Amino acid sequence: MKIGYIRVSTDQQSHQRQLDGLQSHCDEVHCETVSAVKKKRPVYQKVIKKLKRGDSIVVWDLDRAFRSTIDALTEVEKLRERGVEFQIVTLNVDTATPNGELIYTVMAAFAQFERQTLARRTREGMEAARAKGKHIGRPFKLSEHEITQAGKRVLSGRATITSMAYNLGCSRGTLAEGFKRMGMSI
Question: pTM, whole model, 2 decimals?
Fold first, then answer.
């Protein structure tokens, strides 16, 4: 039996491309929406447990199943010990053959290199943006103007931090963090 496994990282991504590619290769296909770096991937675990000697797990692309080269090599070895093969459709790789096993090992290393390179570039880009004074991450809930006005009211005694936070629709902690960000000692 050939069982397909499809994974996308977020709800904004579609399973359809992988599904279209796997349907003609598989007896059944299972889809999951979870980041590859998550330790728990329930659908993947269910598929792995279901596989029996002589079965194959089929994925569209190598990075859809594993988190790292070590993870990929370890998992495929565990499958092989159970008599289960691994296939990657886009690479025409089948670990049942020596050539397929070699190509799989090399591609797993390249996939990890690609992920590490992307992570490094992302970190470098964020560091460069921070160096230019740009805010990285979730947008601030309160504008500088709102924080300044709230600070003036609190300092003048016309309002408390709690009442201003309520009026601005945020928590007391959010307003306090805003004061801190603006360099206001309140």
Answer: 0.57
